[in-house]
Amino acid sequence: MFNKQLITVNFLVDDLRFYLEINKFSRLADSAEELAARNVCTKNEIDFLKKKAAIISKLFLSSDISSKLQVNISESERDLIWSLSSKGLLNRLLYHRAKVAIFPILIHFWKRFCNWKVMKSFQVSAMEKEPTLTAVKACSGPSETYSP
Q1: Where are the bilayer-spanning segments (predicted)?
Q2: Which of 65, 82, 84 is nearest to 14 (CA)?
Q3: Domain spans of the chain, in order of start
């Protein structure tokens, strides 16, 4: 449970991938808006954004793998994204609420993961102490065990 929301731990990796993809989408949408403001935006950029939104939906929001929803957002958030994308909205607002929902989950569990990783590595290093090598004194003269 996180903020009264049931979190599926197995989805956390997908949450991170989803967040990274929607962040890329937001940056691309911002670029397309800038180009459109300067009358330079082409149909290719718009088509690319539509395809990217469709791929994100297919991978994370309506997956072929069991449990259609592969990330820790609510069904209503998913429906909102579908609704906005069906209306042709291709800017950062499309995934804004999903970002706001996913980011705190990622931060919370990232902190727990890092603490677990540190403690695990600390326990391993304490258990597997390597024997120390005794320093060998180097001498510049001929060896006492070998004489020419």
Answers
A1: none
A2: 65
A3: 9-128
